[in-house]
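Milestone M4 deliverable, item 7.
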Amino acid sequence: MHMELTDEHRALQQMAKDFADKEVRPFAAELDKKSDPRECFSWDIVKKGSALGLRTLAVPEEYGGPGVDLMGQVLVMLEIARADGGVAKTFSQCWKWTPMITKLATEDQRERFLKPFMEDDTYLLSMGGTEPDAGSDNRMPPPDYPKAGWKTAAVKDGSDYVLNGLKHFIANGGVSSLYIVRTRTNPDVPITEGTTMFFVPKDTPGFSIGRTHDKIGWRFYQNAELIFNDCRVPETNILGELNKGKGASSERYVSFNDVELASNVLGIAQSAFEHALDHARNRIQGGRPIIEHQAIAIKLADMHMRLEAARSYLFKTIESGEHESAEFESSSKQLMKVFATEAALKVTRLAVEIFGGSGVMRDAPVEKLLRDASIFPHLAADSIMSLRAAAKLR
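Output delivered:
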């Protein structure tokens, strides 16, 4: 579909492209090859992105930020993910939780947490949700099992709450300065009625980082365990309402999730297509560039078709306002993310095929992109869960 971009959008897009080409792309492949997942991360890249306003992109103007709209955020993600999807997600993870501080937090909490976020170029944000025994059922709680979901407990003790439990696969885990942690303050009711969110700064006693997860792709992006061992948090750190941390008052601020992931994976797929197209134009076999061989040309056409369709679906979701809905039942945004993911998986696989035997070598540019794309079927309720939920609507 045809999109009319404003001058501001075009400027953001160009800024993101320049940053990606100059500061991310030259280092992405080498960082990806580090054996220790913690060494795949670069504070230098984060600081350079922060200097351009990438970390605080979604903070409204009234709080000192640029207040970039969703379309602008998507354009920035698409460009940075072309260079490295993990870098794009490290920044967009902050945009995802910005509304929790600017719109849901109290004035006192904004003073304590928003101010340092704006001032410190290494201040990243995280949400502590997923647990070893609580993944997709956090987002789509099974109606026949009210105790499904988070088990991390928060028990009131005087003017504090004491947190105990374990989170894992946590985005920006180990590198964030502030964690928004979802806990069970009432374990006997469904999570929509017994969940409370807390602000937990990284230096809170009783809070520590466990393993940094060693993923096959998206390696720049840090995922880690959060360990709470008698972690004492003041009652003034409750975000939103007690026992309403999974209610409408909080869920309306997390609808960005599927748009964010779709934009990221399509940036990855676009990069794979560009590498494959360039290779096909320059690789000579049978006395001519392989793009002139029908089988290769058909693969490239298939890749282009899937990318165009997925981007159109993404932009349609943004234009229609479907992304603003917190409830799956009232939108197709999860299906849009699934569609983008499936398109990217096919595009990145075909890119490896077009490179032939060299495509699976670590010094080829496309094998990393295939590994990066393979992460996405498992994010924010896996693809099968999303399709199952959609089937129930028919």
